[in-house]
Structures are given as structure tokens and as C-alpha cells.
Amino acid sequence: MIDVKYMFLLSRQGKVRLIKWYDVFTHKEKQRILKDISTLVLSRKAKMCNIIEYNNTTEATTTTTSTVATSTNTAIAATTGTNNSGSSGHKVIYKRYASLFFICGIDENSNELLTLEMIHRYVETLDKYFGNVCELDIIFNFSKAYYVLNEMFGCTGALMESSKKDILHNISLMDSIESSDNLSSVLS
Amino acid sequence: MGSLKQFIKDVRNANTLAKERSIITKESAKIRTQLRNDQLEISKRRSNIQKLLYLYILGEKTHFGQVECINLIASDNFINKRLGYLAAMLLLKNENPDLLTLITNLINYDLQHSNKYIVALALTTMGDLCNAELAIDLYPDVLNILNKRLDEPYLIKHSLFVASEIILKAPQLIIQFTNDGLIGKIIKNYRNRSLRTLSNCTHGVLLAVLQFMKICLLQQKQQKQEPGKEFSEEEIQDFDETIKRNFTPLIPELMEILKTCHTNSFEPEYDVNGVSDPFLQVALLQTLTLLFSSNLDVDVLKNDLQYLLTNIATTNETNNRGFSVQYETVKTIFILDLDPSLRVLGVNILGKFLNSKDSNNKYVALNTLLKVVPIEPETVTRHKKFIVRCLYELDPSIKRRSLELIFAIFNKSNAGELISELIKFLSQSTESDKGLMLYIVDNLLDLYFDSVNNTHTTFLSEADQFIMIVALLKYCGKFIYFDRLSDILLIVNNFKQTETKKKLTVELLSKLINKGKDNKKEDDDYYYYYYDNNYGWKLISCWCCGEYGDLIHNEFLDDQLVSFLTSLNQEFYSQSNMHMINYILTSCLKLSIKIADKQNIEKLRQLIKSHSMDANLILQMKANQFLVLFNEPAHVKRGILDVMPAFSKNVATVGVKNNGNGLSYNEDSVSKGNYKTFNNKNQQTDLLLDLLDDIPANDTTSALANDVSASTADMNGISLPTSSIELYTSKDYCLKIYGNITSIADNEANLDIFIQNTATNNRKGTNLKIFIAVSKHQKVTLGHLSDTIIPSNNGGMVKQKVRITGEGKLKLRVRLQFLDETNNEKTIQFDYKFDEKL
Question: What is the ipTM of this complex?
């Protein structure tokens, strides 16, 4: 039911720059997803499409040293496969902007093309907020990047606000409250 | 202790991983000690939390700082609250529920704050950390905001998102949130507003309303699918009733919004490449889809929707933008199964996607077309030109999808054309496409067998079959699995016209026999590339040589045929490939009655004889038996070595072809096709197949042995071969597990695992799953599992086929998972080491 299950920003060296989980995952699942997706995304060639089908079980057979293959009766797989929404197969949408990969894990039935546009929206908003954003801006001001993210996406991982102007307006208001707070604490 | 900036710089400047680690652990330790200090300045506390957040992003442990977030939230300063809430929503997500009770009061307090930003922060954090208890504790506050602060769009959108999260965690609250037409009130309020004063209001509220409705409808659907699990029938009916009453009147309103949004002229704020707010349009479409598909008696409105969708689909048909909205429109059309004319329109839009430059569009189009094929086969087939073109995309997943689609649209009229397209693709493929090539092989063969099984004739003409087989062998012969090769032999054997058989034999043999005839350099390269290592080509040639040696007298000399077999024998004996040698022996025997020249016949006899002392027992046995046969009088031989009759293949596995979306990347689907179990009743064909398959003789003998001692045979037709070994006995569950190696060749072993339940008190296991792991240098593929239920009282056995490739000792780690009679999950795990080696 959750559209965007997680979102993270990855540098070309494979370092995570920002990360947010919307769906529920165990610690182990998170680590596995990060590891698998990072290698997958970094190994993609430029002309490939921005959509990857990610399946926890199939990845396991290629990445772990001792190979484990599962076999379930097809009928059972069909019934159990649907209600296990959290960790089983999902799609990964990624897009590279300069040195950063923006990566989203989305539900099988979500709109892949729209997710790409959402990522683009986020990048545009960051760009406007920081003024020609670059990786360093996000590294050193990750909390600001989070603030923008939280204004744009709701807690269920769907887009909350499509107006850039509105997001930036609210963020700047909050920033000014923050600085006046700072000022008053200095003065007192 | 330095600032956050300094810390980040230090981490970035570390030139080795070890150095980075030491910086991080040192800083973590420092933060830990500082956290114990109650007198710490608030600015220092902030800096600590920021560092913790940085550690969180790096994937380090941050649990020790969880309480500190709460301290920051408790502060009155906005700057502290903002950071504290941010830290809480990241660090506390899915963590200890006890900590949440600490934070509940703080959130509760802040939800009533006069500053809307503080309320919003509390709301966002609540949404992120929400669990069922938190939802039940705090929902009245959220409801309160929705009712009382209706004029503040910023708060309304945040509250609605939290409301969605609450309903995800505590579905019973649907009623509280949807009653009194609250949602309708919000929509009305903001629609009018957005029409009059654009200044203060954005699409945010609408997006939030739609998200909320979507979650409600999805929850309702899910609860309906699993009645009695969490809620009683009445409760679910109550949900239905409330949703119906409150949501149905909103449908015309939503359609109206979609219409205005779609036709709206340029609005820079929401514009994405000339489309006005695709996010809102898609959200509207998704919500409408859910509303129409959840049985709300809204058929009256369906016509309006169709009209609206036609409008959207046609206005966008010509331009190349707003793909995401068009894509969603198509999805809606097919989920709701709308009018045929709309469906055609939908398929055509996808066709346009295929023709666009963007590979993402191609991917989604192929993916959707695959789902749509069963509904609109003809319309999809019209786009086959573009589908075929996608084979040459760079992206492997696009290639894969287009292949799947090609096989999905295969029919009588386009078979020849599509086969030639596939062959063209194969001719341009390289080793890196091995998976795809094998996929083509499997599907083409399955196509043949499926059509034969269903109608007793195939729609592939014999000429097509001929072309297909030659191409498959030429381009993929190196990779095809044994079982698939024997399928090809079956097709060859079943050719109706002797002429085709002859043509094929000549085609195959001429490439191998006439090599180096005219020593051209490029011919040589060609030969080495396609035929030198081509196991499949050689194996089929060898078989044809024996089987149809009499048909090709005019093309080849007896000398050539015999020396061909001799050289083949040398080549594969040095590689100790016993599988091939088996075929060579049979071919020698068969050829011996088809040629006249005494000298050559003697050569064949010598060849067979050379194996009569073979170290491999099976070969030795076979060679000796053949020598006996060889010396029989001609008429006896002729009778035994007569041409194979045409026979059919029993396909026991169901659903190999029809699992459309299950065509995953791993080789699972490939292997599924490989393990066709043969029905024992058909002993006649079975034996023939065994001969053909060349599963070493012990299989046939064991099958026979089992027929005699039927005691081990059980009800579901699975019997324990006499050669099987007991791998493990579980006293707790009364399970016995046996293993039987059916074949072992270099780098590949096939074995069966049998599970028997000796319990006498009706304790049966259900939902059985088998997991098998092998050592690093090997790869395991699990084939067909005969059943997921282990019957009790020795009532039958479950059989799992396993194929192991690689090298080294044969060692297994097996894990069985099943549900016992009380539906508790049980697991058995054990290791077993076979004496055999790969």
C-alpha cells in the first residue's frame, strides 16, 4: 500500500548521502537492500532504463557465496506472494544527477514514470533551495535536505506537495524562525 | 570535540577504510560520554544529535542517542524542536516501542501548539513513528486538527497524511475519520478556494485527500480479502457502509477536478514539460480506479468516466509528453476493464511508447502489454514490429520483456515470421546473452510440445521446424541442456517426411565432415565459432548419423561417416564425456546395419569393443551388450535396430508456460522446463525415452525393479528407487529423508530427494518448502517438487528434483520447512556428504 518504500541518495563511490525508509523493514533487510541496490545501480550502463526489478530471493542466489535456491509449489507462491508486501519483490527507480544517484524503491504496481518525475521534482526543489545544488551541499547540510524531503513527501511515501514555491516558502519561514531563535538565545 | 563540519571533513579525508573506522568509533565514543552529562549546553547537544544523524546516514549504530532526541523535542526553542523531531523520526523508526510511549506525550502536547510549524513537525514525526498504540492514543488530536483548523491548508495536508498512516496501522479507525462527510467537506472547501484565490492554497491538500482515500479503499479491500482475520464480518460491513456513504458522492467531484486539471492552461507552478500537475492527475486516476473497482454501485458514473478517459487518451495521443499520465490512464482502462474501443486506444498508446526514444517508456509499455495480451491479443499483435525492435535495446530487462511478449503473441499466422525474427536475433547474440538464448530455446520447444499436446499437431510447419532446429543448434548448441537436446531429438524423430529428416542430417553432418575442405581462412573462423565447441550440434549429428545413415548414402561415403564417429569418439573420450560416448555407441550399432562395406563395419565393431573394458561401468555394460547384439544375425539386428517410432512426450509439470510474470531472471524457469517427470503408466514410451535420453541404465533397471517390488511404490506414483540412500531421520517429526543420484557426469549431478512420513497418528506436514545449499564452487537448481503436503502413515512420499553443477565433493545442506497439524512452522536442517564427487 505504500508507494515509495524507501529513498536514498548514493554517491558514485557507493556512499550513502541521505536515506529515508517509508515502509517497515528489519535491520537485516535494510542492509541487504542497501548492499544489493548499490551494486546494481552502480553497475548499470548509461543507456539502460532507469527501472530495475529487484527480487530479494533471486539476488540472494547471485550475491551470496553459498547458493540457496528455494522451491515452492507455484500455487502457493501465488497466494503467499501477494500479501508479503514489505520485503519481497519490488521495483527500484533510479536517476543520476551529476555525481549523485537518487534511488527509490517502489511498489510493483506503482507508476514508474511518475516516480522519475517525483525524483526530478525533488532535485529541482533542492536546486532552488541551495542555489545550484551539488553533492557537497547535501553532504554538509543533510538536515536541510531532509527538511525539504519531509515537506515534499508524506509519511506514507507519497508526494504531499507538488508546488515548489509552497515548499520553499514554508521551509524559508521555518528557517527564519530558527535563526531568530538563535539570535534571541545569543542576546539573552 | 569539533563541530559537525569538522567531523564530516575528517571522515571524508580519511584515506583508508581503517582510518575512517577509527575516526567514527572515536567520535561515537565521545558522543556517548557526552550524552551522560546532564549539564551539557544545548548547542552542544544539538551538535551531538547532528553527528548522530550523520552516523545514521553512514549506516552506523545510533541506538545510544535515541533518548537524546526526546530531550531536544522537550525544549521550547524551535531550532531544537526541529532537529529533535527530525532525529526522532529517523532514529526511532521501527525501534523500541517503549521509547515511543515517552514521546507520545510530547507529540500530544505539540499537536495543540499555536505555531503551525511545530504542529506539522509533531504530525510528521507521528506519522513516521506510528504504530497501532500510538495511532489509537493520538488519533483524536489529529481528528481535532482536521475539524478545527480547516482553514490552514498546510496543517490539513499534514494531518491527512498522518490519518492515512493511522489507518494503515489501525484500520478500525476508518470509521472515525470518514464519518460526517469530513473528506467531502475538505474537498469542497479547498476546491472553491483554489478556484477563487490561488494565492494561499496549493494542490497539496488535494493530493493528501486522495492519498487518504486511496489508503482507506486499499485497507477496505485487504480486510475483505481476509475476513475474520482481524475483524468480524459485521465490522467489515460497517467499513464498507461508511466508505460507500462518504466516498461515493465524491466521485463526480473528483472527475470534475481531473477534467479541469487536464484541460487547464499553463500554470508555471505545476507544470512538468507542458503537462499540468501530472502528480495530481495520476493521484486522481489512481483513486478513481480504486473507487470504481471496489463495488460501490457506481455503474451510472462509469459512462462519464469512459468519456473523460477517452478525452485524456485522445488529446495526448499525438503529443509526446505527459507519459506518466497516459500510462496511468492505460492502467485504469485495463484494471476497470472498460469499453473495447478504449482498450484498443490503450494498447495503441502503449504502442506509441514502444516507438519513443526513452527506454523507460519502452520498459513500462512492454510490461503492461504483457499483462494486456490475454485481453486484447489482436491489437497487441499489431505492434509486433516495435516489439521485435526492442530485442535490440541495450537493457537486458527490456530484451527479456520483449522476448516474453513475442512468445505471448505467437500464433499460427505469425509463427514463421516471428521465428525468423528470433533467429535473426540469435545470430547477433553473443555469450553474454546466454540466458536469453536459453530462454528462446526453452520457449520455442515448449511451444512445439504444448501445441502438440493440445491439438496433436503443431502449427509450426515442418519447414519452420527444420529452420528452427538448425538455428537453435547453430547458435545455442553450446549451452543447451541435455534434456532440451533430447526434446530436439524427439522433434526430429517425429518429422513426418523422411525428406526433412534427410535434409537435416545432411545439413548437420556436412558442417562437421566437410570442414577444411576448401581451406579458406574466414570459413575456418566461422567453423570454430559456431561448430567447434558446439556440443548440441555434434550430439544431434551423431544421433542422426546412426538413425538415418541409410538415407544419406548419396551424400556421404561410408568412410566419412565411420571416421566421423571415430573422431567424435576420440574427441569426447579424451574429455571423458560419458554422455556423448553413450550416443556414439548407439550410433555405431545402428549404423552397422546401414552400411555395406565390411571393413567399415569392422571399424565400428572395434570402436564399440574399445569401450568393453571401460572404467565406467555403465559404458562397459552397454558396450558389451552391444557387442553381443552386433554378432547377431542380420534379420535379428534389423528388427531390434529398426527406426524409432514416433512418440509423444508426457508433460507432467503444469503451468510451465503460463506463468507470464513469473519469468524471472534466475534460471528457475529454465530448469522448470527441464524436469519433466514421465508417467510410469506409459512404460513403453518411457523406456524408449530413456534410451533416447540416455539416462544411464540404472534408471531403467531401478524403474523395473520397482515394478516388481511394488511395496515401496506409493499412492502418488512416487517410488523409492532401490539405490537410494537414507540421508536423515528425524525422530521428532517421524520423517525419513532419502536421496538418490540419478545421474552424475562431470560438472553436473542430478538427484532426487524423497521425504517420507512414518508417523502413524495422522500427523501430516503441509506447506512444505525445501531449501538446499551447496558449497561455494557449485550451483544448485531445484526442480519440480511433487507436492507440498507430506502425507502421514507412510501414505506417500514427496519428491524433489535437484540439479547440482560445478565441481568438488557432493555436499548438501538441506532445510525443510513445513507447517505441522497445529499450523506451527517447523524446520529441520541437516547436512549430508555423498561419496560421489563432481
Answer: 0.87
